[in-house]
């Protein structure tokens, strides 16, 4: 019995050793451990509200990560993107940002394009000492949250005064009406910027009206607008309400130009507004596919080849955000946010696909020029004009 038992255990031992040998031979085929990757978390809406911003942003971010990894990654490690959908909702983005920081252990979060949502995520990022790099937030009070907070978009406080100067001194539109969306943080923050610039440039605000995001009947507001007879309408909200306002203006026979910020930059502006918005809506942005720089031209061609569509401001800014962060990590020789954030803050004259970017001493981005865009035929957006940025010299 002892011999048989010993023989059985010898067979078992051989099998165990054989299995261990096989496992060892296959080790190179197993996925790289988590520490061999640098994780980046996407912040943006892919469904529901604000999807017109998040979907192209995700595409730009993925393209940048693929290009960087194809060239060897960052510090010898691959970048890994994590792409949750915050649905444009404050609770969703809070949960996602917390997960990115505490569970996924990302080095940085890219997004969100909306100012209010960015502030929620930025507060979480700052407390967890994780870099957040918004690819679109233009309102006030963002980078003030802390030294881990960055953004690379054309700021309203620089762009709006430039646009108002163009409206009054180039176009001669001095009598101005303003409509604000009261339940939209972007709109309520942008309206004071426009009002201050109009007063500084010698314009007259002859009518102030309000709407709410989600409303569909703007009969009363357009009736008052028609009675006031302004030279131009400034609307500080998003593309959906802008399209509906202009449809009502067309219905009432009111021939007026609507001017706004990059919150109007969404394909649904054209889809919803049709002929009512064509060459009737003008908005500013920090990116245009028309008259591209060499960097922008290469990006546009690669983006078209990959996605069979043109890039927009958000795809370009998410792309640049990833590239800028990767550059900062390489220069700092670290993927630790506590280390590379200081290198990030030194950014100067970065020739991005969304324009030239420099971070001012307060980490705010200075971008130039301002692109005035509109809807023209089948083209959206179409470049109307380029104007210089009103900003302090660096």
Structure notes:
The chain is of the alpha/beta class and 394 residues long. The chain has two domains: 34-154 and 291-363, Response regulator (Rossmann fold, 3-Layer(aba) Sandwich), CATH 3.40.50.2300; 157-285 and 374-387, Response regulator (Rossmann fold). Helices cover 45% and strands 20% of the residues. It contains twelve helices and 15 strands. The strands form three sheets. A seven-stranded mixed beta sheet has the order 7-6-8-9-10-14-15, with helices on both faces. Strands 2-1-3-4-5 form a five-stranded parallel beta sheet, sandwiched between helices. Helix 3 runs parallel beside helix 4, helix 5 packs across helix 6 (185-200) and helix 11 packs across helix 12 (337-344). The protein is globular. Mean pLDDT is 90; it is low at 1-32.
């Amino acid at each position: 019995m002892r011999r048989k038992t010993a023989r059985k255990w010898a067979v078992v031992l051989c099998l165990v050793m054989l299995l261990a040998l096989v496992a060892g031979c296959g080790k190179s085929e197993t996925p790289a451990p988590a520490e061999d990757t640098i994780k980046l978390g996407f912040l943006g809406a892919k469904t529901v509200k604000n999807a017109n911003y998040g979907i192209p942003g995700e595409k730009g971010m993925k393209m940048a990560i693929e290009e960087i990894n194809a060239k060897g990654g960052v510090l010898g490690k691959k970048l890994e993107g994590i792409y949750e959908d915050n649905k444009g909702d404050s609770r969703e983005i809070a949960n996602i940002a917390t997960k990115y920081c505490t569970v996924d252990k990302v080095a940085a979060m890219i997004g969100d394009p909306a100012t209010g949502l960015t502030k929620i995520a930025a507060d979480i990022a700052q407390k967890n000492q994780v870099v957040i790099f918004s690819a679109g937030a233009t309102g006030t009070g963002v980078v003030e949250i802390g030294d881990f907070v960055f953004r690379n978009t054309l700021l309203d406080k620089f762009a709006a005064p430039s646009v108002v100067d163009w409206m009054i001194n180039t176009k001669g539109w001095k009598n101005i009406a303003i409509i604000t969306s009261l339940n939209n943080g972007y709109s309520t923050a942008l309206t004071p910027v426009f009002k201050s610039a109009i007063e500084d440039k010698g314009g007259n605000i002859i009518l102030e009206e309000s709407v709410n995001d989600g409303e569909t009947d703007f009969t009363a507001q357009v009736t008052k607008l028609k009675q006031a007879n302004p030279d131009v309408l400034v609307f500080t909200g998003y593309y959906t309400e802008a399209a509906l306002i202009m449809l009502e203006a067309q219905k009432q026979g009111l021939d007026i130009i609507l001017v706004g910020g990059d919150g109007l930059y969404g394909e649904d502006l054209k889809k919803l507004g049709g002929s009512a918005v064509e060459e009737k809506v003008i908005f500013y942005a920090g990116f245009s596919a028309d008259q591209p720089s060499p960097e922008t031209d290469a990006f546009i061609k690669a983006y078209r080849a990959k996605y069979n569509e043109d890039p927009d401001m958000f795809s370009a800014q998410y792309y640049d955000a990833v590239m800028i962060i990767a550059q900062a990590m390489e220069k700092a020789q670290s993927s630790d946010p506590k280390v590379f954030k200081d290198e990030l803050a030194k950014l100067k004259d970065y020739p991005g696909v969304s324009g030239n970017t420099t971070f001012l001493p307060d980490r705010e981005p200075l971008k130039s020029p301002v692109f005035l865009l509109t809807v023209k035929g089948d083209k959206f957006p179409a470049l109307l004009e380029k104007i210089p940025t009103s900003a302090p010299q660096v």
